[in-house]
Amino acid sequence: PTTNLETPDPDCDLDYTPHVPRRGRIHAAMSNSFGFGGHNASLVFQEYSE
């Protein structure tokens, strides 16, 4: 869901999903870590397919 969305702006045309999770199959995910001093890392996981 769109976090902390109470009143969407009618002039901003985005695909909001307030207060309700959207169902779907996830094939890939990414996790970012941004640290002090420029120590940054990203992990990307993807579903294995033959």
Written description of the protein model:
The structure is a single chain. This protein is mainly beta and 50 residues long. The chain has a domain at 23-50. It has strands at 28-34, 40-46. The radius of gyration is 16 Å and the shape is flat.
Topology:
Elements: E1 28-34, E2 40-46
Antiparallel strand pairs: 1-2
Notable traits:
single chain; 0% helix; 28% strand; 50 residues; two-stranded antiparallel sheet; mainly beta
Largest sheet features = 2 strands, antiparallel
Helical residues, percent: under 10%
Total beta-strand segments? 2
Work out the helix count: 0
Radius of gyration: 16 Å
Distance between the termini: 32 Å
Q: How would you spell out the order of helices and strands?
A: EE
Low-confidence stretches: none
Strand order of the largest sheet: 1-2
Shape: flat
What is the percentage of strand-forming residues? 25-35%
Outline of the structure:
By secondary structure, the chain is mainly β. It has no helices and two strands.
